[in-house]
TrEMBL record:
This is Os05g0524732 protein. Gene3D superfamilies: Transferase(Phosphotransferase) domain 1 (1.10.510.10). GO terms for molecular function: ATP binding; protein tyrosine kinase activity. It holds the Pfam family PK_Tyr_Ser-Thr. Residues 1-24 are annotated as: Disordered. It comes from the Eukaryota.
Length: 155
């Protein structure tokens, strides 16, 4: 079994007893762990930017099996800290919902933090609400209500 396959099943605990990363939060993540070098490969050296959020830039990438992913890399100047980043990761590890983007994995070492998500080809909900989705139309109130109701229901 090669390293990357082994890592897919790895559970990493950030905590004083087993972090190895200098991070002292005790958040638990149960997704695939990526090295920064792997992310470089996946994103073809962070070539294509999909967008920018509070943590930093989000890059387009492809896993070994061809799955398209979005890689959110936390920049040092980010106005949201390590803790918030790991909280987002932890929530998405635990909650699986058809209306919520799935997290595939994460990268955390002394220098870099990144989250890897399934790629959302249709754009964000915010874009569709603002009429900036790929179809250029605004969501109707009926559609907005349905999305809100479905999001509040169990998966
Ligand atoms: N899974 C994804 N698939 C495709 N594009 C994405 C994905 N995640 C993020 N993006 C793109 O990157 C942009 C920034 O996303 P991000 O989640 O970092 O920010 P945000 O939700 O706008 O803000 P914040 O991080 O402050 O909550 C999005 O607006 C979108 O264009």
């Amino acid at each position: 079994m090669n390293n990357s396959v082994k890592r897919q099943n790895e559970t990493m605990r950030y905590g004083p007893t087993n972090n190895g990363s200098g991070h002292n939060s005790s958040l638990r993540l149960e997704n695939r762990w990526f090295t920064y070098n792997e992310l470089e490969k996946i994103t073809n050296k962070f070539q294509r930017v999909l967008g920018q959020g509070g943590f930093g830039k989000v890059y387009d990438g492809f896993l070994e099996d061809g799955t398209e992913v979005a890689v959110k890399v936390r920049t040092e100047s980010s106005n949201q800290g390590d803790k918030e980043f790991l909280v987002e990761a932890q929530i998405l590890t635990r909650i699986h919902h058809k209306n919520l983007v799935s997290m595939i994995g994460y990268c955390k070492d002394e220098k870099y933090m990144a989250l890897v998500y399934e790629y959302m080809s249709e754009g964000t909900l915010q874009e569709h609400i603002a009429g900036k989705g790929n179809d250029g139309r605004y969501l109707t109130w009926k559609e907005r209500l349905r999305i809100a109701l479905e999001s509040a229901q169990e998966a």
